[in-house]
């Protein structure tokens, strides 16, 4: 077990799975500059762990995942500071999206504004039955500033995203599942056990294959279909350099469980 020390985050690593918890419950885990900076630092440290298999991101308490960017802090920001804040947010969400291993969001309550955008940058979103999603920025005279205008239409389609962003309405977990943002809705008490179970499954799979699959999916989404197909073909071919591909296929033929080493 490895623990990293931050003021606004709890980061634990055990059995090749990292769990990041945002700890600002009095402000419903809102993202101020410190949280964004610490998230960036934590992700950079975790990225350097060669054996890491999966990351889980959640918020402390039973009320909020992340209630958005910190409105109190933002209200006093000069345009130059707002630009720097937006850049830092984009760096962190870009890090989550391109993170070398899967990132699972365990959304345990409000995921509004910047909080919804954090969930959108994760690979899979699981939600508790009291979770609430939305991009309420237009109610504040703002627009989504951490990539929501880009990732929400991609994730839930332009029609649904346009309604969400233009109205600023809040949607419950079931509605978020209906549009494909959420993978599964479970009772609050079952959320972390559920997500930890998925992380454990991922950690049992061939590490290089999981990393390569994520890379191919993320790269494929930001390019044209032909280039995406080429990326997949090249990655598929590269898998045959790995011992784990030999082991996985041989274990199947031998009718036994594979012993993956990450080589
Ligand atoms: N920021 C700061 N504090 C927040 C907060 C937030 N986003 N959300 C809640 N809090 C604080 C409340 O002020 C309150 O603090 P105290 O009064 O106790 O000191 C405490 O958390 C508990 O909240 P409530 O008393 O309001 O709790 P309720 O259950 O009554 O309501 C709520 C829960 C989530 C419905 C409500 O708190 C709410 O509407 N919160 C704001 C949600 C929201 O609008 N989120 C979107 C924020 S805008 C950009 C970068 C990023 C962004 C935009 C631009 N650039 C730099 C260009 C992103 C923007 C956003 O995320």
Write up this protein:
The protein is α/β, with parallel strands linked by helices and 263 residues long. The chain contains 11 helices and 11 strands. The protein has 2 domains: 2-203, Alpha-Beta Complex (2-enoyl-CoA Hydratase, Chain A, domain 1), CATH 3.90.226.10; 206-254, Lyase 2-enoyl-coa Hydratase, Chain  A, domain 2. The strands form 2 sheets. It has a 7-stranded mixed sheet with strand order 1-2-3-4-6-8-11, with helices on both faces. The model has no long low-confidence stretch (mean pLDDT 95).
Report how far apart the termini are: 23 Å
Ligands (ions, cofactors included): 4-(N,N-dimethylamino)cinnamoyl-COA
**Rg over C-alpha atoms, rounded to the nearest angstrom:** 19 Å
Alpha plus pi helix count: 11
Counting structural domains, the number is 2
Number of strands: 11
Helix content: 40-55%
Give me the strand/helix succession: EEEHEEHHEEHEEHHEHEHHHH
What CATH calls the topology of the largest domain is 2-enoyl-CoA Hydratase, Chain A, domain 1
State the shape.
Answer: globular
Largest sheet: 7 strands, mixed
Can you tell me the residue ranges where pLDDT is under 50 for at least 5 consecutive residues? none
Using the 3D structure, state the CATH architecture of the largest domain: Alpha-Beta Complex
Strand content: 15-25%
Q: Indicate the structural class.
A: alpha/beta
**What would the average pLDDT be, to the nearest integer?**
95
């Amino acid at each position: 077990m490895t623990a990293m020390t931050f003021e606004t985050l709890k980061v634990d690593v055990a059995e090749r799975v990292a769990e990041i918890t945002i700890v600002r419950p009095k402000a419903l885990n809102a993202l101020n500059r410190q949280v964004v900076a610490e998230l960036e630092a934590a992700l950079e440290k975790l990225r350097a762990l060669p054996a890491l298999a999966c990351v889980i991101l959640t918020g402390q308490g039973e009320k909020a995942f992340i209630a958005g960017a910190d409105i109190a802090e933002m209200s006093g920001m000069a345009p130059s500071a707002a630009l720097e804040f937006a850049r830092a947010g984009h760096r962190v969400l870009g890090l989550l999206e391109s993170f070398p291993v899967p990132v699972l969001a365990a959304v345990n309550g409000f995921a509004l504004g910047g909080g919804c955008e954090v969930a959108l940058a994760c690979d899979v979103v699981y939600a508790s039955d009291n979770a609430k999603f939305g991009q309420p920025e237009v109610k504040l005279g703002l627009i989504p500033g951490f990539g929501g205008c880009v990732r929400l239409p991609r994730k839930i389609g332009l029609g649904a995203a346009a309604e969400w962003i233009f109205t600023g309405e809040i949607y419950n977990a079931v509605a978020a599942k209906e549009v494909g943002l959420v993978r599964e809705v479970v009772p609050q008490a079952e959320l972390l056990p559920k997500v930890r179970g998925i992380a454990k499954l991922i950690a049992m799979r061939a590490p290089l294959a999981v990393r390569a699959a994520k890379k191919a999916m993320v790269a494929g989404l930001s390019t044209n279909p032909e280039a995406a197909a080429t990326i997949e073909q090249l990655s598929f071919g590269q898998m045959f350099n790995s011992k784990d591909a030999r082991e996985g296929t041989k274990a199947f033929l031998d009718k036994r469980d594979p012993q993956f080493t990450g080589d």
